[in-house]
């Protein structure tokens, strides 16, 4: 594996990891993730594809978000990477899938895109209220409280968490972060300047921008605009993901005009595409991606 960088339109450095051989495939990670979240998926795909794993802004190898950040900035980052690598395939995970779909509307170089459970169609009013609370807790240094706010809003905690009082959830989150360590990593002969995986404390502030991505596709008009996507699409969902994510894929199935097929990972949750230590099933996810992108 190697690490490289590209400069986006506004001058920000976007770092990415690269491994494998064959046609280029860009994997855009989701919220509370970084380029390392899909390393194992990339390894399975690497015999057939050159896989590019960018760190979205605010993470790892890439520069920070700016005060003027919009979804167009995210598209510019993807565009810079595609211009450099000549990749024509994108796999977008969760909020990364929102970026991928918007990129398809602007970047004709993208020929195929796989979409996994983008958080679209969320209630704008309740989401705005949640974001206000989250931003306030982050600004006050209450990272555990902010993560609990996000976890409850996105239904991403274990099912039993819904029965726990908030104070207990915040304590458990604090304990988890206190034990979270970044394991050392070694450089490869390919010039990999690998950094340790990002921690939850480091990733927490980036959730603000993932919430903004969800709001960009929260009304009927914005979702209807996705009908303009002519790129060939693979839709992916997981049977144990929160209902609103599965419903989002249902809506896309009725909107996107060029769907190759839809695959539902039975018995799996929203983390199915990630590394095994985060309850992922990378081999299972890679099998469907190989079928689609190899055709």
From TrEMBL:
Give a single Pfam family match.
Abhydrolase_6
Superkingdom, natural source: Eukaryota
Every AB hydrolase-1 domain range: 25-272
Membrane-crossing ranges are none
Q: Which SUPFAM superfamilies match?
A: alpha/beta-Hydrolases
The record's PANTHER family line, in alphabetical order, gives: HYDROLASE ALPHA/BETA FOLD FAMILY, PIMELOYL-[ACYL-CARRIER PROTEIN] METHYL ESTER ESTERASE
Name recorded for this polypeptide = AB hydrolase-1 domain-containing protein
Look up and give the organism this protein is from.
Trichoglossum hirsutum
């Amino acid at each position: 594996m190697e690490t490289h960088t590209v400069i986006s339109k506004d001058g920000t450095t976007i770092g990415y990891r690269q491994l494998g051989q064959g046609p280029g495939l860009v994997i855009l990670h989701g919220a509370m993730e970084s380029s390392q979240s899909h390393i194992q998926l990339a390894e399975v795909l690497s015999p057939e594809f050159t896989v590019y794993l960018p760190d979205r802004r605010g993470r790892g190898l890439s520069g920070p978000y700016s005060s003027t950040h919009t979804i167009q900035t995210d598209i510019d980052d993807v565009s810079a990477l595609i211009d450099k690598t000549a990749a024509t395939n994108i796999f977008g995970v969760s909020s990364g899938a929102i970026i991928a779909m918007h990129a398809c509307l602007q970047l004709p170089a993208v020929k195929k895109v796989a979409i996994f459970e983008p958080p679209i169609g969320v209630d704008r009013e309740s989401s705005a209220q949640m974001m206000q609370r989250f931003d306030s807790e982050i600004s006050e240094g209450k990272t555990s409280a902010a993560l609990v706010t996000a976890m409850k809003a996105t239904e991403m905690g274990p099912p039993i968490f819904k029965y726990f009082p908030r104070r207990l959830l915040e304590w458990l989150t604090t304990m988890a972060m206190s034990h979270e360590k970044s394991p050392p990593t070694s450089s490869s002969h390919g010039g990999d300047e690998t950094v340790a995986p990002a921690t939850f404390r480091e990733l927490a502030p980036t959730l603000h921008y993932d919430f903004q991505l969800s709001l960009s596709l929260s009304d009927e008009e914005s979702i209807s605009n996705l009908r303009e996507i002519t790129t060939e699409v693979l839709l992916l969902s997981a049977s144990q993901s929160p209902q609103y994510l599965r419903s989002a894929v249902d809506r896309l199935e009725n909107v996107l005009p060029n769907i190759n097929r839809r695959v539902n990972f039975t018995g799996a949750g929203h983390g199915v595409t990630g590394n095994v230590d985060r309850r992922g099933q990378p081999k299972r996810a890679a099998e469907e991606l190989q079928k689609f992108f190899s055709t």
